[in-house]
Amino acid sequence: MALDGIVTRAIVHELQPFIGARVGKIYQPSTHDLIFILRGAGGGGKLLLSANPTYPRLHLSDRNSVNPAEAPMFCMLMRKHCEGGTIESITQVGMERIIHIQIRTRDELGDVSAKKIIIELMGRHSNIILTDLATGTIIDGIHHVTPSISSYRIVMPGAAYMEPPQQHKLNPLAVGQAEFIRLMASAEEAALLAGSEEEEPEDMIEGDIAELLRSLEEPKADGSGGPAPSVDPMGWMVHAFSGMSPLIAGEILLRAGWRHNAGGTADPAQLWAAFDSIMSPVREFQFSPVTGYNAKGKPVFSAIPLTSLGGDAKHYSSISACLEDYYGDKAERDTVKQRVSDLIRFLSNERSKNVKKLAKLQKDLAEADDADQYRIWGELLFASLHTVSKGDKEAKLVNYYDENQAEITIPLDPLLTPSDNAQRYFKKYNKYKNSLLVIEEQRIKTNEEIIYMEMLLQQLEHASLNDIEEIRDELVNQGYLRDRSKKGKKKKKSTRPTLQVYTSSEGVDIYVGKNNLQNEYVTNRLASANDTWLHTKDIPGSHVVIRSEEFGDATLEEAAQLAAYYSQAKQSSSVPVDCTLIRHVRKPSGAKPGFVIYDHQKTLFVTPDEERIKSLPNVLRS
């Protein structure tokens, strides 16, 4: 995991100016995340606390999020105990990924009380726990841990808080050169002894008793018990020192000039020098956060510079800025992927069915186009009944409709009379003639269905959690899906969706619709007649509106960038984007949601630039 004890130390150090700040508002935008709005000391800000099992973190954030209409129970409880409170301390437990935030507040009676928020950033075991400072009793946790989940500790209201299992590792910031070299030698000796010892009698014991014996063997905080430093120095450092991630251990080896494939052993003096070159600035709170890609092409981040990243590292002024950029919307995108998998499967299946249907209709249309041929065959047969006999498989007749009077061969059913063969062709003619109109109507409708499914699939690529529910509601309203909500009193839904609003470099608002509900609201209800409307030409995408009559080329180009970025052509270059005034945009009667026609347009060609789009200030507005 990239978020190690060093990163945690950097986070806690960065948050020290907020000691004395007041907790203004608390929100819970998702199952695992809390947002604290801090005011006062430190200049105020937005603090994200996340117990996401894949992306646990804590840092200042500028990211906008949509909060649920009704706050979850844990959020309500945090508001009750922490809103209006003052932050008294923000500390790290040793070099572990555990942060304590102590808050002083007043209860319902006006008495002063102290609470402690414990943030455990430990992968799938991550948690945010609110405790009473005086008693150490858990008030509640964002994730409950029952006895059936863990026999070691319980995270439930009323239980006494117990720290996660101790790893008995050494604090890397408190180790000097002599001790480091001694630990290295001791670990080497312990590893050799462990490899040469004969099996002890208790090792022959199996089952529950063996587990009990192993649990009673408390590891020593001396770096022993892990791999031999001469064989696996990285593994030894990760095993011996708390807060040490494989990423940092690998960086130490790189600075020490150690290569696994070289066949040599790690020199204690060189290893210590590299170890100290990292720990000294960390000890003094000197951090230089970076992101980049490791040798395997995997994105990584660090609170200290990494030699392994070379010149491709991206540097940040704060650890919060680093984490914000690294994580981006990864957590939300993962949640969105889980929520939309059924919708993507349904829409893909519907699109495939309609593609097959369109191919069949095209075949029927090609056959129907031959309707005149069947009429001519019938008329020629009627005019030449005396020359054709029952049992003939074909008739060679002069085609009076051909200006050259060429001979034509007409296939016959030998079981029918010449007259019946002629009638059969007339029936085919009438059938195809009547079906031409129906086939064309079906073809247009099927093509619209394909475009509609592709448009929804494109919208799901950029959808937030809130956007997904709006798309799902749209499919229910259109009759594609059943309403899965429980019967009974339904909540009245707002007719004003939450919209992404960007501010151009010229200070002009640019509205982006990310689903059909938002597209229709932006285009048909919010925008004025002289506002400028943009959309990718013949490509599924978002409706983008510049809400001003006066703006420069920079705003127009940025709006076109947004239209191209929020479209199916996001990864393409020279994307055609049409722009026109809202007065020239209209929705045809009976058209699918989000579908419009327009004229008086001009076409711009832009290549979406993600970095440029991310640099534009944006907010969520409803």
Automatic annotation (TrEMBL):
Residues 501-589 form the NFACT RNA-binding domain. Key component of the ribosome quality control system (RQC), a ribosome-associated complex that mediates the extraction of incompletely synthesized nascent chains from stalled ribosomes and their subsequent degradation. RqcH recruits Ala-charged tRNA, and with RqcP directs the elongation of stalled nascent chains on 50S ribosomal subunits, leading to non-templated C-terminal alanine extensions (Ala tail). The Ala tail promotes nascent chain degradation. May add between 1 and at least 8 Ala residues. Binds to stalled 50S ribosomal subunits. Keywords: Protein biosynthesis, RNA-binding, rRNA-binding, tRNA-binding. This is Rqc2 homolog RqcH. Associates with stalled 50S ribosomal subunits. Binds to RqcP. Transmembrane segments: none annotated. It comes from the Bacteria. Belongs to the NEMF family. PANTHER family: NUCLEAR EXPORT MEDIATOR FACTOR NEMF (PTHR15239), RIBOSOME QUALITY CONTROL COMPLEX SUBUNIT NEMF (PTHR15239:SF6). HAMAP family: RqcH_B.
